[in-house]
Amino acid sequence: xxxAVPGRVLEIEERDGAKMAVVDFxxxxxxxxxxxxxxxxxxxxxxxxxGFALQRLDEESARRTLELFAELGLLQEEFGDPWEAxxxxxxxxxxxx
Length: 97
Hints:
About 35% of the residues lie in helices and about 35% in strands. It has about 100 residues and is α+β, with helices and mostly antiparallel strands. A hairpin with a 2-residue loop joins strand 4 and strand 5 (about 50-55). It is built from three helices and five strands, in the order E-E-E-E-E-H-H-H. Strands 3-2-1-4-5 form a five-stranded antiparallel sheet, with helices on one face.
């Protein structure tokens, strides 16, 4: 599954001609492209999908959404270690045989 997740902008910089940000998604930090929201500022929240900030979001809505995603385990599913997930899937498939 691929979610649109709210995140808080920590840093902004220009990289290879693109406006980029370091964004915190409830403890998981990722690089995000700001080309669709070039006026986004440090400290603001945005909805991010497949590495692109798509829409501004107020802080309260962002926090509520992140809490709900964490409760449902969706943040781990979205940002978890892909190698760990693949190993778990392989182990599960072996058990089913």
